[in-house]
Amino acid sequence: MLETSARLLRLLSLLQTPREWTGNELAERLDVTSRTIRNDVERLRRLGYPVHATRGAVGGYRLGAGSSLPPLLLDDEEAVAITVGLRTAASGSVTGIEESSLRALAKLEQVLPSRLRRRVGALQAFTVSVRPTRQERGVSPDVLTTLAAACRDHERLRFDYETHDATTGRRDVEPYRLVNWGRRWYLVAWDTDRADWRTFRADRISPRTPTGPRFAPRPLPDEDIAAYVSRGIATAPWRHRARVTVHAPASVIAERLPPTAGTVEPLDEHSCRVTTGADSAETLASWLGVLGADFDGSDDPELAAALRAMADRYRRAAGD
Questions:
Q1: Cα–Cα distance between 65 and 60 in angstroms, integer?
Q2: Rounded to whole angstroms, what are the CA distances from 163 to 31, 238, 239?
Q3: Environment class of residue 111 by beta-carbon count within 10 Å: exposed (0-12), middle (13-18) or buried (19+)?
Q4: How far apart are the C-alpha atoms of 207 and 202, rounded to whole Å?
Q5: What does the pLDDT average to over 92-112?
Q6: Model pTM score
């Protein structure tokens, strides 16, 4: 009986990999006959595991989705990854799942081997989380799953959206990607009314049902969609924007300018154009100074005035 139970666990571990196994492959892996594999598959089915079988030359066994969640087998790295993920979820970036995350975490940690419990415990002991401010709010898991399903199925979405000034308007979009940045979630979508790409904060979205018709996917606005969103988020609150010519190679300035602070376009081997911004021309003047290269901001009168005032201040500070 012990040998049979151990074999069933090994068979289940193989079936949990995302592929189909022929009966001969499983029999060879477990060093048994094909008939034994068929009998073991029936035992797993009686235990609640939905093992699907297909006939034919390319047929085989695979573990499918069932009506209830049976026990899962996890290797060491998978167990650690899930534990860390549950701890993160319990911190509250997605509202409504903190308690269920803690329950699942308690069940998992109870059965973790001591060697894995030490790894997870060290991560918890020496990691500090930044608590959200009162202005931050989480996003409902129902909203996230609705948005993700629409992205997956290429279905148009209608939703009410709360803007920065607390007004609400209706949007009709083609959803493409969900991006998680820090404690916030963003939807990248094609706004059909504005005929342009837009990024929406998920916690400000109130989906309308049902979803709309399917759409033909279009190319994304950027191959690196995470960088695209981070640039858009960083530039959205800028009150003062500027494009300046920097007398240094683009590769050099790109290393000094974070992707969230602006964009760098090469002009030639020795100069580039930087598009950036800040809350004020004075802040922007200070920020451009840390690039460590000469630049030309004379085309922007407000920035030029801030640069002159700052230059005078620095000369006075140096005793000139």
A1: 16
A2: 63, 16, 17
A3: exposed
A4: 10
A5: 70
A6: 0.53
